[in-house]
Each structure stands twice: as structure tokens, then as C-alpha cells.
């Protein structure tokens, strides 16, 4: 029996609280550090005065940084620990925000047609068994003319277990459940946590774009990124310029994709 929620409760408890954490430095966030990257900021654009819904917001650092940029923000996550920590972080940072505990495959009806922007980033759809439900929930949350911005691991990069040597152990798409016993966290490999049985789902780019189109969204942009500010899987070594690349023969394979789709 898989238990993704137990894994994420555990991670929400740990993240930002161990010395070796590579992703979540809470103290610098509280001092004003902007955690959002140019990629998602560029695609979302000016958020001043806009209503923004952040799906799978974890413990809210990115959500609160959208608020720092001027948005009225709501974050959704299915982990009660993450939501509680996000609310606490908002108080500590003195930022107004709403956090809702919900499965992103079944968004509460009260979130429908209320947002100018729906955003989800870095480690999102691999946790979602019902891609259609996720996309139609995101689309339903938007006001007419609103935009969904999704930045996530490229399905080609997700197939890979290691880069040197190059080993692939995941399907490219298909949506079939992939069961895995997981211990530890990408944010701090030195931390030991109980083993959790997880289930994840591989989607091809075609399946993701088709789901967005079938949810009634109009695709405005699809990016495949071979040079990135972030390696969401911790498999790559940054170049001298600080950027990550996934070398493949004489060229590069994409690490991330980005989607902007309009309601
Ligand atoms: C990799 S994290 C997202 C990271 C986020 N971009 C950040 O860095 O703050 C994935 C998040 O998805 C949440 N999650 C996983 N499955 C979910 C579901 N079905 N509904 C809602 N949240 C879910 C987890 O609790 C976790 O917070």
C-alpha cells in the first residue's frame, strides 16, 4: 500500500530544518530571499494585484514569494503538515496568504473561477494519478483570460536514474503507476527518514499538453529547457556558469519543460 502523503508529511517536517538542506533555507527566506526563478517569473509576468493559486505549494516559501511580488495568494497542498508549516511561515514573514489542505485532483469547489494565475512548479505531475482531473481543476480555478503556468521536470530527464553512467529506469510517459520505496529527501541526502512506499506516474509531454487542451486551455507556450538554474533531481553538476546541463552525445537533453496555457 503506497503512502505518498506520509512521505510528504515527513518531508514537510524536515525541509528547511537541517544544516545540509540545499533547497529550503528558511532563515534567508525570512530575511527576504526571493526563491522564485527567472523561468517561472518570466512566464507568470507581473502579478501585482492579481489572484494567484499555487498548486502543491509544499510549506509555502514560493507561495509567499509570489505575495512579496504583489499577488494575493492561495496555496494548496494535500499534506496537513505542509499546510500548517506554510501558515506558520506566513505569520513569521508577516505576509498575508491563504493555505488550503486539498488534493489537487479534487480542488474544493470554492476555488473555482477565482484566479488570474494558477502556478505549479518543480515536482508536480509525477505525484498525480489522474492527470485529466488535475488539469480540469487547474482550468476551472481560472477566470476567463487567466493563465496556467506549469514548470516541471522534463519527462526525458525523469526517465534517468543516473547520468554518469547513463542509466534509465523509468518509462517515458504512459501514466502507469510506478511503485518505489523511498527514504530520505532530495533536499538533504544526509538525512535518514523512515522508508515510505510511494507511487508516482510518468507522463510524456504529449500527454501533458493533450490533457491541458482537453481541459479547455489554449496552449500559448511550451518550452523545453536544456540550461537551467536548478537540477530538481540532484543528478547533475553545474557548469562554471552555475547552470545545469544534461549532456547527451554532442548536445543536451532537456531538464525542465514549461507550459503557459490560457483559460
Ligand atoms: C516537490 S514538492 C513541490 C515543491 C515546491 N515547488 C516547492 O519547492 O516548494 C511536491 C508537493 O506536492 C504535494 N503533493 C503531492 N501529491 C499531491 C496531491 N495529490 N495533492 C496535493 N498536493 C500533493 C506534496 O505534499 C509536496 O508538497
In N-to-C order, the SSE pattern is: HHHEHEHEEHEHEEEEHEEEE
Bound molecules: S-adenosylmethionine
Give the CATH level 1 class.
Alpha Beta
Radius of gyration, whole Å: 18 Å
**Which regions contain 5 or more consecutive residues with pLDDT less than 50?**
none
For the largest beta-sheet, the strand count, sense and barrel status come to: 7 strands, mixed
Helix content: 25-40%
What coarse outline follows from CA principal-axis ratios?
Answer: globular
Global mean pLDDT = 95
Task: Briefly note the structural class of the backbone.
Answer: alpha/beta
Q: What is the CATH superfamily? A: Vaccinia Virus protein VP39
Number of domains: 1
Query: What's the helix count?
Result: 8
Question: What is the topology?
Answer:
Elements: H1 4-14, H2 26-30, H3 38-44, E1 51-55, H4 61-68, E2 72-77, H5 80-93, E3 98-101, E4 115-121, H6 131-141, E5 142-153, H7 155-158, E6 160-162, E7 167-168, E8 178-182, E9 196-200, H8 205-214, E10 218-225, E11 246-248, E12 251-253, E13 256-262
The structure holds S-adenosylmethionine.
Residues 4, 8, 56, 58, 61-62, 77-79, 82, 103-105, 121-123, 127-128 line the site of S-adenosylmethionine (SAM).
Overview of the structural elements:
It is a single chain. Helices cover 27% and strands 27% of the residues. By secondary structure, it is of the alpha/beta class. It has one domain: Vaccinia Virus protein VP39 (Rossmann fold), CATH 3.40.50.150. The strands form 4 sheets. Strands 3-2-1-4-5-13-10 form a 7-stranded mixed β-sheet, sandwiched between helices. Strands 6-7 form a two-stranded antiparallel sheet. Strands 8-9 form a two-stranded antiparallel ribbon. A hairpin with a 4-residue loop joins strand 6 (160-162) and strand 7 (167-168). Helix 1 (4-14) runs parallel beside helix 5. It starts with a helix and ends with a strand. The relative contact order is 0.16. The mean pLDDT is 95. The structure holds S-adenosylmethionine. S-adenosylmethionine (SAM) binds at residues 4, 8, 56, 58, 61-62, 77-79, 82, 103-105, 121-123, 127-128. S-adenosylmethionine is lined by residues 4, 8, 56, 58, 61-62, 77-79, 82, 103-105, 121-123, 127-128.
Amino acid at each position: 500500500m503506497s503512502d505518498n502523503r506520509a512521505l510528504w508529511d515527513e518531508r514537510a517536517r524536515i525541509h528547511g530544518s537541517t544544516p545540509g538542506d540545499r533547497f529550503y533555507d528558511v532563515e534567508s527566506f525570512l530575511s527576504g530571499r526571493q526563491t522564485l526563478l527567472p523561468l517561472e517569473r518570466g512566464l507568470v509576468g507581473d502579478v501585482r494585484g492579481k489572484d494567484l493559486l499555487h498548486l502543491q505549494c509544499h510549506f509555502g516559501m514560493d507561495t509567499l514569494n509570489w505575495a512579496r511580488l504583489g499577488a494575493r495568494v492561495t496555496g494548496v497542498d494535500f499534506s496537513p503538515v505542509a499546510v500548517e508549516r506554510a501558515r506558520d511561515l506566513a505569520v513569521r514573514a508577516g505576509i498575508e496568504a491563504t493555505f488550503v489542505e486539498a488534493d489537487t485532483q479534487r480542488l474544493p469547489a470554492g476555488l473555482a473561477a477565482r484566479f488570474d494565475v494558477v502556478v505549479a512548479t518543480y515536482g508536480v505531475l509525477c505525484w498525480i494519478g489522474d492527470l485529466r482531473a488535475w488539469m480540469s481543476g487547474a482550468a476551472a480555478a481560472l477566470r476567463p483570460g487567466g493563465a496556467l503556468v506549469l514548470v516541471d521536470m522534463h519527462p526525458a530527464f525523469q526517465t534517468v536514474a543516473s547520468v554518469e553512467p547513463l542509466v534509465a529506469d523509468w518509462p517515458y510517459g504512459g501514466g502507469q503507476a510506478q511503485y518505489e520505496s523511498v527514504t530520505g529527501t532530495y533536499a538533504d541526502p544526509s538525512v535518514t527518514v523512515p522508508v515510505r512506499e510511494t507511487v508516482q506516474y510518468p507522463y510524456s509531454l504529449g500527454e501533458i499538453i493533450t490533457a491541458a487542451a482537453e481541459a479547455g486551455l489554449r496552449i500559448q507556450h511550451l518550452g523545453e529547457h536544456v540550461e537551467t538554474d536548478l537540477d530538481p533531481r540532484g543528478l547533475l553538476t553545474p557548469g562554471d556558469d552555475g547552470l545545469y546541463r544534461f549532456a547527451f552525445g554532442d548536445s543536451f537533453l532537456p531538464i525542465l519543460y514549461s507550459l503557459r496555457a490560457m483559460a
